[in-house]
């Protein structure tokens, strides 16, 4: 499928815009209809924020109708084949179209318990999650108050909408992935440390970049930038063992740490993802930086 550019999105007449994005919010074309007059959009992120703002400004009845428009996860609509194209692909990506009898029973119980407590279907942006994650989310949200859970469900609806927009529109090119490695045992940048970046998709790993840190513990160029930024699961692997041996530090034999893998998701390809590593021969930590 050829993605629309943002210029093309902004040039659509109001009717064509509303039709193109009618399904972004499940069975709720009114959101795209109102957004048509709020262009131009400089990014998919800005467009999604505008859509979300329209939902936030809607009345309580409209918000509840939006929640009720969503199908149960692995529910009766899925069994009958009555899901929308977006929902079918999203549920399939999480493996919900291939449940065992035991897993189907677990989802049926979870859906029933949730509906009994809150009165609307459980909603989660399931793309890139697995079955175990989804069932854990069911359990984690059952103790929410009704008001808190309605807010959580609406936030998940907005995440789903953003994912659907990214499936239709070419992202703005500003996103990038960077790293910075600090040797906290010696209080200095980790220069000369090998790094490998791989994309994890469909059970396979594809190495896309191998590099070595410079004198500042950084790379001379971003690991990913612009069109290279793709939504999904990635792995950075840092060759800490080789670095510490080369730096002359005393290690156990074998070394406690060798390769340090960090798996992380990119969910917004228009943003800057900075994944630093603070490492010693015996420990490491990471976080999403800026």
Written account of the structure:
The chain is 39% helix and 18% strand. By secondary structure, it is an alpha+beta fold. The protein folds into two domains: 6-166, Orthogonal Bundle (UraD-like), CATH 1.10.3330; 176-286, Immunoglobulin-like, CATH 2.60.40. It has a four-stranded mixed beta sheet, with no helix packed on it. A four-stranded antiparallel beta sheet has the order 5-4-7-8. Helix 4 packs antiparallel against helix 10 (146-166) and helix 8 (101-118) packs parallel to helix 9. The protein is globular, with a radius of gyration of 22 Å. Keywords: Decarboxylase, Hydrolase, Lyase, Purine metabolism. Belongs to the transthyretin family. 5-hydroxyisourate hydrolase subfamily. InterPro entries: Hydroxyisourate_hydrolase, OHCU_decarboxylase, OHCU_decarboxylase-1, OHCU_decarboxylase_sf, Thyroxine_BS, Transthyretin/HIU_hydrolase_d, Transthyretin/HIU_hydrolase_sf, Transthyretin_CS. It comes from Telmatospirillum siberiense. Pfam families: OHCU_decarbox (PF09349), Transthyretin (PF00576).
